[in-house]
Amino acid sequence: MASSGDFYPRYVSLPGVLGTQAVGYACAHAWMHRTENYWIHKYHHSFSEQSFVRPISANSVTVTEFVVAYALPIVLGTILFRPDVWTMRVSACIISTSNLLIHTPPSILPMDWLPTWAVTNLKHFHHHEKVSSYTMCTPHTHTHTHTHTFL
User: Fold this and answer.
1) Closest listed residue to residue 78, CA positions, set 7, 140, 127
2) Overall domain count for the chain
3) C-alpha 52: how far from chain center
4) Does the residue 139 lie in any domain?
5) Is residue 147 part of a domain?
6) Which residues are CB-contacts of 25 (< 8 A; sequence separation ≥ 6)?
7) pLDDT tens per residue across span 24-50
8) What pTM did the predictor assign?
9) What is the C-alpha separation between 46 and 57, in angstroms, rounded?
10) Is residue 143 part of a domain?
C-alpha cells in the first residue's frame, strides 16, 4: 500500500484529475466526431429527444468509446496527479453526476443559471438533435464539443 507521501495534495489532485478528464473527454469527443471515427460514438447519438435522451442514455456508449473517452482520460489524470482514494471517489461522483445531469430533460432540471461556458442539458440535447440527423459527422457539419464536468 502506498503511503500518504506518494499522493499529491487534494487541492492539486482533485482539479488535476477533473481537468484531465474534461480535456481528455473533449478531445476524444471531437476525435470521435470525425467521419472516420464516428462509428465509435454513433450508438450514443442514436438517443435523441424524439427517441430517448434521459439520464440512462448517459451510460449508453460502446466499449471502445468508454475506453477512449472515459477510462483513458481518468487513467491519465491518476498518473499525472497521483490522487488518493478519497479524491478518486469524489472525482467519480462529480463526473458521473455531471454526466447524468446533462442527460436529464431541461423541463425537469433547468440549468440556465450555469455560466455560459458550462455544458448544460439543453446544449447537450441540441447536440444530440443536430448530430442524430446526420448520416455521418464531418468537421464542417459538426464542430461543437463538450465536456462532462462543470468545473
Assistant:
1) 7
2) 1
3) 18
4) no
5) no
6) 69, 70, 73, 147, 148
7) 988 998 898 888 988 887 776 666 555
8) 0.72
9) 9
10) no
